[in-house]
User: Fold this.
Amino acid sequence: MNELTNIEGQVAVVTGGTAGMGEAAAIRFGAEGAKVAVIGRTQEKGDAVVKRITDAGGAAMFVKAECADEAEVKAGVKTILDTWGRADILVNTAGGFIDAPPLEEITVDAMHHSYDWNVIAKFLITRELVPAMKANKYGRIVNISSVAGRTAGAGAIEYSTTEAAIIGMTRRLAKELAPHGITINAIAPGLVLTPRVTRHPQDVLDARARAIPVGRLGKPEELAHAIWYLCTPGAAFTTGAVLDVNGGAWTG
Ligand SMILES: NC(=O)c1ccc[n+]([C@@H]2O[C@H](COP(=O)([O-])OP(=O)(O)OC[C@H]3O[C@@H](n4cnc5c(N)ncnc54)[C@H](OP(=O)(O)O)[C@@H]3O)[C@@H](O)[C@H]2O)c1
Assistant:
């Protein structure tokens, strides 16, 4: 077994693990021998992901929680720690956006919602799980941001503002958590073929693909591969980084 990549027996928590790149990451962790806690709001979707993992011989549980709700996150973390006694990996994919109107029509409520879903949701579970990681002097945290948080021109202001905030939070926490053996990094995906994207008409997706240097949209499994790397023991010297996984759509 390769010590740099082995996560067998570790406990991996994936918020938004019920669909898209979170689901792909949960499946990947299960296949790598980790015990996977899938967090999401929809029981049927969570049960389906857990079944995929356990049918393949892995260990998984679904934890139903709205990640922006403090009480639900606390209860979910308690369930995970009561069951498995530790947490080694946290992947925060839960997030999203409301279709964006122009500036003059964006309400304060919409800004608050976006902040809750994209920033507070990641802050809360990180705060609740970090003590368990500190106790073991080990942890790997990945926050999913977006190319919208890296550059202007992608996404509405409430989305790009909060995606950039995720990167700021990641960098700041990297300094604070490094002495405890905990790394925290962000991934900024470009367009990825997840349920939120595949609902768009094929001609729209084709046009978006033509604008991406690799000539296509990303696959959830490709995001899961990048997530997995940042969550391996061998990624110990990588912290506070932002990994752009976008097919070359934005290169800085
Ligand atoms: N897909 C892309 O092209 C793309 C590009 C850049 C960045 N991103 C970011 O990547 C992340 C994942 O997106 P995705 O496209 O892979 O997934 P997705 O298709 O949007 O699915 C996300 C999953 O997370 C759950 N979820 C969302 N908010 C939640 C919350 N507050 N609490 C608990 N569960 C929640 C949803 O379940 P329920 O609704 O059933 O609860 C859903 O199953 C998002 O943060 C998104 O902003 C995506």
